[in-house]
Amino acid sequence: MHVLLQAAFLSTLLITMFSGNPSGMSVQMCSYPSGCLQPRKTGNWCRETERYSYDSAAKMCRQYDLGGCVETCNGFITLEECKKKCSSL
């Protein structure tokens, strides 16, 4: 029984960590296009990863280096994803 509970816990943990989020980082629920107006997150440097965010002053998506472990809704893996979610602003 103990082994079964450990296996269930481990399975749940792995699914939670990697489903829909290839980086394994924390992601919050987002709604768009309002999520595009959140400030981009750089945070503590646990991992450097290239991301794209919407720059509301320039009204365009720009590349930046995500340095933190937590992303905001204004952090996209691809330029195309940023443009798709934020183009109506």
UniProtKB/TrEMBL annotation:
<keyword id="KW-0732">Signal</keyword>
<dbReference type="InterPro" id="IPR036880">
    <property type="entry name" value="Kunitz_BPTI_sf"/>
</dbReference>
<feature type="domain" description="BPTI/Kunitz inhibitor">
    <location>
        <begin position="36"/>
        <end position="86"/>
    </location>
</feature>
<dbReference type="Pfam" id="PF00014">
    <property type="entry name" value="Kunitz_BPTI"/>
</dbReference>
<dbReference type="GO" id="GO:0004867">
    <property type="term" value="F:serine-type endopeptidase inhibitor activity"/>
</dbReference>
<protein>
    <submittedName>
        <fullName>Pancreatic trypsin inhibitor</fullName>
    </submittedName>
</protein>
<dbReference type="InterPro" id="IPR002223">
    <property type="entry name" value="Kunitz_BPTI"/>
</dbReference>
<feature type="signal peptide">
    <location>
        <begin position="1"/>
        <end position="19"/>
    </location>
</feature>
